[in-house]
């Protein structure tokens, strides 16, 4: 049994706190206002800039990732007392060689998937509440399962199918409650058509993220790069793509500013630096994103991916509860949060069905893993945290399945438990569906890399 340290439980609190903050601020920032260049005060409805800010926040993981790698290597040297220093040094050099320029450049491809998905989500969030946004993202499981069957030749069992059915019903209930309730923003009246479009964009974004999962599992399962470094490099690539390409393009596209299809970048920057609340929210959002990434890695390593699933579900619930609190108390300043409508009971029912679907699908994963002989006593081989030489301290790449690889201290990118998913786009379906690509055509051998949607 892996012992728990106080730091692990601090990480649990950090995951819930910072995860809830990032989800709430993603919507709150759209409800704040600032002066444009003509002096007119307007709402900050800038999804493209918020996508850029997300990638900037991700890039801050780079130094933490390299510091973490340095301490892990130093710890290995101390544990060996220098007895095998030449061998260790040779191993280190060999590992450094594996982190070639090609591998880091390869991260630009999943970054493109991530960028598209995040832009779609941020535009969709303009027209729905934070709780609906968070729950609708459960659709990722549907598309990930579909792509796993089509491209990775995975077979779903009855628990998987039942979990998918629950997911469809839950998303339908949440979406219907939002349409009937008619609330998409505390500051702007959102028409049913725009609300439906927003939910459609969020669902479409989950299809893109599922495609990213499938791509990573097929092509990138053997990258020996620390999870936080992967998040950081994707942040750097994403920031470059946004600043050098996309922001200039959307600045000249036709349309109304703030609609999601046109965005004046110079005006956006003017609003940010001339509005104290806006600037403060954006800075807090970036810091919270960094802390969420780090807390998520520690929780997955110290307590396991299944426990992380429970926490992500709780995070979704907390987002809704805090949003209600903001609406009905002075904390929301009379312009933040969401109300409890006559149809909120339907949304609550949809949420419960979504949670049920997550648990049932997870049961299907366990049954499948057991049938394949991947589970040992207590299911620790796949679903438990990684044991380390220092009990209670998580490995950098402490993710389900990572300890079944030969690379010490590294993990494949093809897991939603790590790389790209250790950021604010995490949803309650994450970690619930461990896809194992078996005998993937073109790879020449069976692979058991976990691919958590």
Automatic annotation (TrEMBL):
Name this polypeptide is given: EamA domain-containing protein
Signal peptide start and end residues: none
Organism for this UniProt entry: Coccomyxa viridis
Record keywords: Membrane, Transmembrane, Transmembrane helix
Domain EamA stretches: 48-175
Transmembrane portions of the chain: 7-28, 48-67, 104-126, 132-152, 159-180, 195-219, 231-251, 271-294, 306-328, 340-361
Top-rank lineage group of the source organism: Eukaryota
PANTHER family in the record: EAMA DOMAIN-CONTAINING PROTEIN, PTHR13146
